[in-house]
Each structure stands twice: as C-alpha cells, then as structure tokens.
C-alpha cells in the first residue's frame, strides 16, 4: 500500500474484527450515542446507531477530501455478527445507506453453519504398534462458516490422513492429516487434523503381533 493511500476495505474489516474480539470490555464505547466532557457534548457520527431495524453497535466513521465519506459498521443478530465497510461515499447519509443495505443483505440472505466443535471427534482411525489400536481424530478449534443460505446444504467437511498408516507413539494434539471444507465440491478452507488422545507405543509382544499382521 502506498504511503498516504487508503487501506483496502477487507483490511479494515479484519482490523475491526480484531478490535471486537480482543477488546470486549472496551468495545461498548463505540455504541455510545454521545459523550459529554468538560461541559461539551459530542454526538456520535455513526447514524446507524439510531436505526431501529438493525442492532448496530459500532464502529467508526471518517472523511477525507480524497477518500470521501467512510464507515465501518457492525451489527448483531442473535449470536451472529456482521461487519460492513463502505468507502468513498458522497455524504454521511450516503455512506450510512450503503452500510445499511450491506448489513441487511448479509443478515437476510446469509447464514452461519456450525461444522464442528473444538475437540469433537470426526472419525476413528486404526493405529499400529500402540497400546491402543484406534485413534479418535478431529480439530483443535471450533469451525463455523458464513455463506449464502442457498449454499448451506452444500457445505461438507471431510478429512484425509497424511501417512499410509498411523503408527504409535502419537501425541495428543499431533497433526495426523488435513480437514478439507468444501462448498459444492470446491475446497474453501483447510485445517489440521489432530489426534484427540495420545497413543503410547505398545509392548514388545503387541508390536510383534502388529508386525505379523502387516506382513500377512
């Protein structure tokens, strides 16, 4: 990005999300409609805070001669949160109207699909040379995706194991494969597939039996 130029809207959305997620105790101040200090009251310039059709609780407005009227607006509905970034508006009302359209569209036509929770078993894989011969595998993190409602039933999560076979010892949390999330057959995100429990190496007799089974 050139010095003096405006950051892309996507970058501003990422920054806004970071503020919301990392500063929950302070974030409420962005929804304050006015602030009085030393006898002077300053109104919040985010007019969407007064919109009764949306639950907008932030975040920032701005204006420069070169960039026009800009706004980063965030709204919630239940456990969902959307962030809209509008740049280059012709007026303060214009930027608010465009942000309102984006938020309304997102809340109306998009949904959030919960795929799996952190530590949830996605499968049970065979293990060789271990004290246990089965290994539950899954993700170390929760995963949800927002997408158009028409695409929700096309979202699938599948996994693949990195090695031809899993052999002990295996540590809890060790990456053993890859989770592939696809939308209508196209992979849109990948995550590490991890061992959900440890599998220590088995005793001599157990390992010998596994060796013989593999050779047969």
TrEMBL record:
GO biological process: proteolysis
Keywords: Carboxypeptidase, Hydrolase, Protease
Gene Ontology MF terms: serine-type D-Ala-D-Ala carboxypeptidase activity
Enzyme class: hydrolase
Domain Peptidase S11 D-Ala-D-Ala carboxypeptidase A C-terminal: 110-201
InterPro entries assigned: Beta-lactam/transpept-like (IPR012338), Peptidase_S11_C (IPR012907), Peptidase_S11_C_sf (IPR037167), Peptidase_S11_N (IPR001967)
Claim: Cytoplasm is one of the keywords in the record: no
Entry EC no(s): 3.4.16.4
Pfam families per record: PBP5_C, Peptidase_S11
The keyword Protease belongs to this UniProt entry's keyword annotation: yes
Protein name per Swiss-Prot or TrEMBL: D-alanyl-D-alanine carboxypeptidase dacD
Organism of derivation: Serratia marcescens
Gene name per UniProt: dacD_2
